[in-house]
Design goal:
The chain contains 11 helices and 16 strands. It is of the alpha/beta class. It is elongated, with a radius of gyration of 24 Å. The mean pLDDT is 96. It binds zinc ion (2 copies).
Length: 396
């Protein structure tokens, strides 16, 4: 491993920042204190900042030399609405809020890179350090773009990084093309006609119709889309009725659809609606169909992916970079940025949980788990990757 030496010397400082953020988690668009910490550090290091894009977003600008080339590095800052069960000193001090996805670590790694870049300036061009709010469902990336991120800060490429439990500590994983899925949610209300449960012939039973729709929908995934294309259709809630002897008026189906391509998503959405209305009509019922597209699929651009691979290899060695990592059906709003700019999103291994405090069980160390913690050993590795990526992208 060839870490950037001065960053290694900053490990204690970065760990202190990371643990402070971990102890003070803030939810979507409420990252006021976190943004204050980021802004204060950047200012302390002489880095100009612009605040307020995407409500709490912060952009740091590190410029050097004469080139007008520029790239963006992005970290997310928000936490999750869940209760942490860890007992260590830096555990969450805000009940019901927790950094269970490691965005505290992402922010600290980018700050580590910022500190080094501002001091050593071994590049020619501009680096935009993008600290975004609200990744966890709030679409903070989109919001910053709507507020003019790419117009105010023109950049030729943008990069993102997420820690990934299960990948060995400090290893990297990436794949060109689709790496994370589109995330979408649906809600369908089946309208029948309520009746006494002993007199079903006097009503239209929406529960039976909902069950038929639920089953028929699964044939879209198994029979209608190309089997070589991935998709998940999960019905996660069915609501109907309030008594054992009443056929209700309505039944509700709620769930999520994940795909790696917009084409497959178009097909699934269209067929879900057709099947729902067709089945309902066959039973003299009707449906209200709503389908909301949240995050698009995250598609890594081949050229920038190859470039990121070179930077990762320069830091940890070729044997610790998996260039064919298995994509995940999870979603990530950095996908919006990759729709507008070439770039790449990479995973950095968070390990198996051995870094976690004893006495609380060593694992699991999965994201969104109540006993998760970001692995501080990654701080100099991730920051070194950012720095190498900048130096290789914007050579002197
Ligand atoms: Zn998350
Ligand atoms: Zn996350």
């Amino acid at each position: 491993m060839k870490l950037v030496e001065p960053i290694l010397a900053q490990q204690a400082q970065l760990q202190e920042i990371r643990r402070d953020l971990h102890a003070h988690p803030e939810l979507c668009y409420e990252e006021q204190r976190t943004a204050d910490v980021v802004a204060a550090k950047l200012t302390e290091w002489g880095i100009p900042i612009v605040r307020g894009l995407g409500v709490t977003g912060v952009v740091g600008i590190v410029k050097n030399g004469t080139s007008n080339r520029a790239i963006g590095l992005r970290a997310d800052m928000d936490a999750l609405p869940m209760q942490e069960i860890n007992g260590f000193a830096h555990a969450s001090r805000h009940p019901g809020k927790m950094h269970a996805c490691g965005h505290d670590g992402h922010t600290a790694m980018l700050l580590g890179a910022a500190l080094h870049l501002s001091k050593h300036r071994n590049f020619d061009g501009t680096v935009y350090l993008i600290f975004q709010p609200a990744e966890e469902g709030g679409g903070g990336a989109r919001r910053m773009m709507d507020d003019g991120l790419f117009e105010q800060f023109p950049m030729e490429a943008v990069y993102g990084m997420h820690n990934w439990p299960g990948i060995p500590e400090g290893n990297f994983g990436v794949v060109a093309g689709p790496m994370m899925a589109s995330s979408n949610e649906f809600r369908v209300v089946v309208r029948g006609k309520g009746a006494h449960a002993a007199q079903p012939h006097r009503g239209i039973d929406p529960v039976m119709v909902a069950v038929q729709i639920a089953q028929a929908w699964q044939t879209i995934v198994s029979r209608e889309k190309n089997p070589l294309e991935s998709a998940v259709l999960s019905i996660t809630q069915i609501h109907a009725g309030s008594a054992t002897n009443v056929i209700p008026d309505e039944a509700e189906l709620i769930g999520t659809v994940r795909t790696f391509s917009t084409g497959v998503l178009d097909l699934i959405q269209r067929r879900m609606e057709e099947i729902a209305s067709g089945v309902a009509a066959a039973f003299n019922a009707s449906v209200d169909f709503s389908f909301k597209r949240n995050y698009p699929p995250l598609i890594n651009h081949p050229e920038q992916t190859a470039f990121a691979v070179e930077a990762m290899r320069a830091v940890v060695g070729a044997d610790r970079v998996d260039t064919d990592v298995e994509p995940t059906m999870g979603a990530e709003d950095f996908a919006f940025m990759l729709q507008e700019k070439p770039g790449c999103y990479v995973f950095i291994g968070n390990g198996e949980g051995a870094h976690r405090a004893g006495g609380h069980g060593l694992g699991p160390c999965q994201l969104h788990n109540t006993s998760y913690d970001f692995n501080d050993n990654l701080l100099p590795i991730g920051a070194s990757f950012w720095v190498r990526l900048v130096e290789m992208s914007l050579p002197v």
